[in-house]
Amino acid sequence: MTVNRELFDQVMVPNYAPSSVIPVRGEGSRVWDQEGREFIDFAGGIAVNCLGHCHPALVSALKEQGEKIWHLSNVMTNEPALRLAKKLTDATFAEKVYFANSGAEANEAALKLARRFALDNFGEQKSQIISFNKGFHGRTFFTVTVGGQAAYSDGFGPKPGDIVHCDYNDLAAFEALISDSTCAVMMEPLQGEGGIISPTAEFVEGVRELCTKHNALLIFDEVQTGVGRTGELYAYQGLNITPDILTTAKALGGGFPIGAMITTTDIAKHLKVGTHGSTYGGNPLACAVAEAAFDTVNTPEVLNGVKEKSALFRELLTAINEKYNVFTEIRGEGLLIGAVVTEQFKGRAKEFLVAGTAEGVMSLVAGADVVRFTPSLVIPEADIREGMARFEKAVAKVVNG
Ligand SMILES: *Cc1c(COP(=O)(O)O)cnc(C)c1O
């Protein structure tokens, strides 16, 4: 069978438009395609491969678990899931964990839990959910409606109700919206898909205070920021506040699908037996790999390394920009970096990604105006330099047409 990009158009639902490049092998931050062309991976499978491709600790955890026991469902619990849950609770504010298979599912669980918590404690009038324009929380119908881009939730019939939005970093607008009818507030501690937008300290602290005042649960969506991405294990740990519920996925499995919702005992108790569930949630293979990823990332060496690598990324991007003047701003935290294109390239961030692929470097975009970099947290300095040299060639091509 010939497997190529044409086969995609033949057999796949057309909701994606993938590149013509088909990678077949990866090692660390290097990837090779069907033709043997090499790429430096600054995309990390969309902020997922926190330890690059085929990290030895993850490969060995997967092989070991693969020869022990496969799926069990939640009819029986399993050792890897319990070990991972213990580590997640030891390392964070949380006391209880719910496992899912993706970020959207972790968020779906968080939102359902918040609604049930409010119903049990305050009654059914307390159902409003507030979230932020440009926010992204996944593609299930509930999470995409909570997300801050109506274009992604329009056209699928009646939407889940009582969900409102305001601008991120606009505390006055938020204060005007929140009331005792607010059940929960869902936010990213740094907007990822929306364009790599950091919150101000005043905004985060203000949101926390107002949630507490109105008995609304603060849900931090750390699906993209979690597990070391910003240089903290979780981004909230670098802010001056603690959420009530936190969701984590992407980097959690280091490339193996897993998500989790974590919270306190007092809140968790409202998801009683039978209220929510997932066949695959807590799958032993996923949890074994995630445990190995978590152990590897949650060390001072790796987390401090993220801050050092971030500085190098910014320095090299700034140097490219001094030559070509294509970005107005390099922003983000840790290894979640956005380069905002100038007016001249407005709406054309993707051209840099495409040109980069042709030069042998994989990157991402965050919206139409921001080139996004989410490499492995342990990417070697030499790969950062080589990838940036390739990216510079891509920038030159875009500039010179
Ligand atoms: C990617 C992402 C999601 C969705 O995760 P999936 O695994 O695609 O369902 C949710 N929230 C944030 C902040 C994300 O970046």
UniProtKB/TrEMBL annotation:
Pathway: Amino-acid biosynthesis; L-arginine biosynthesis; N(2)-acetyl-L-ornithine from L-glutamate: step 4/4. N(2)-acetyl-L-ornithine binds at R139, S278. The gene is argD. This is Acetylornithine aminotransferase. GO terms for molecular function: transaminase activity. The modification N6-(pyridoxal phosphate)lysine is found at K250. May also have succinyldiaminopimelate aminotransferase activity, thus carrying out the corresponding step in lysine biosynthesis. Its cofactor is pyridoxal 5'-phosphate. Belongs to the class-III pyridoxal-phosphate-dependent aminotransferase family. ArgD subfamily. Keywords: Amino-acid biosynthesis, Aminotransferase, Arginine biosynthesis, Cytoplasm, Pyridoxal phosphate, Transferase. CDD domains: OAT_like. PROSITE patterns: AA_TRANSFER_CLASS_3 (PS00600). It catalyses: N(2)-acetyl-L-ornithine + 2-oxoglutarate = N-acetyl-L-glutamate 5-semialdehyde + L-glutamate. Homodimer. Its EC number is 2.6.1.11. Binds 1 pyridoxal phosphate per subunit. It is found in: Cytoplasm. Pyridoxal 5'-phosphate binds at G103, A104, F136, D221, E222, V223, Q224, T279.
